[in-house]
Amino acid sequence: MGLESIKYKDGKLEILDQLLLPLESNYIQIKGVEDGWKAINKMQVRGAPAIAIVGCLSLAVELYNEKFDEKKVLRQEIEGKLNYLVSARPTAVNMKIAADDLQLLVNNLEQDSNVQSAEDMKTKFISVIEAMLDKDVNDNIAIGNFGAKAILDKTPGDTLIRVLTHCNTGSLATAGYGTALGVVRSLHKLKKLEHVYCTETRPYNQGARLTAYELVHDKVPSTLIVDSMVAALMRTRNINAVVVGADRVAANGDTANKIGTYQIAVLARYHNVPFYVCAPFTSIDFNITNGDQIPIEERPDREMTYVGGHRIAAPGINCWNPSFDVTPAKLITAVVTERGIFAPCDLLSQKDTIISTAN
Ligand code: MRU
Question: Does any ligand 1 atom lie closer than 6 A to the CB of residue 205?
Fold first, then answer.
């Protein structure tokens, strides 16, 4: 049974508290938008797709238990709550894209004379949010399979694959299966994976705590390294590919992802290792032309200076703690999506093919 980080049924939402992993597996109930916002902001749930899904489901939960007499009042309520959810974390674009899409949907439902009551409108709106869970898993399986094929196509003969991944992009960061970790899962299922290396991913340790947890859980042959070992790993361990996720891909392919991704891409280019960004279209922001326009979240110093309640840095030292960095498109071999593999410069050609849930 795969890891289930988000449990939802009939207006009830629970998430696995990722602040406690890997030592404790504890589900917390999300009773509405306020709880959803806090869980995202505190990083009890994290990873761009999971942030959007939990944010939107927290709205579904809240609406589930309220009664509305007027369609206009329901539309206004949804509009305010969506704007609030988008403010929980700034870099990952998935929540913003979902919010824009749902805003369009609710505007259309308000105008649609076939949707007669506010309760009718609410039911239709909630069912679109509920569909996000299955869609994300299906998208991730497609990403996994496309990515595995791209890596195998570039590797001669019967060579088994050795990959490096960064941060956590698996079942814990999505509705299930994962994006870059989905590629690892697909290679493993095909019996083509020799080994996956995951970085510790300082300062929040998503690699050591979460990716390592998923890999051990699924019995995937894997090894943890600290972030400063990447160059040595590439020089000595014959890595066939790097697979990472994305928090926001700009229209030109520049990609914001977990801090440290950029330096891995530089090292991959130096060592001639293909570097793949694996992300659904809900992580692509066609409204910005390049990565300089991506807002980069800065997290509290405490996430650097403490590990599990123990201070590890000298008191009084200044800290800089950007949570993400931007990898220039020219260092990215390809972007692996649910619709196939694209050179970064070809993403823009897909802009007008995006289908909104509002239609
Ligand atoms: O700060 P986080 O843990 O939310 O950052 C997560 C990442 O950077 C992931 O690589 C990205 O969101 C993709 S998850 C499929």
Answer: no
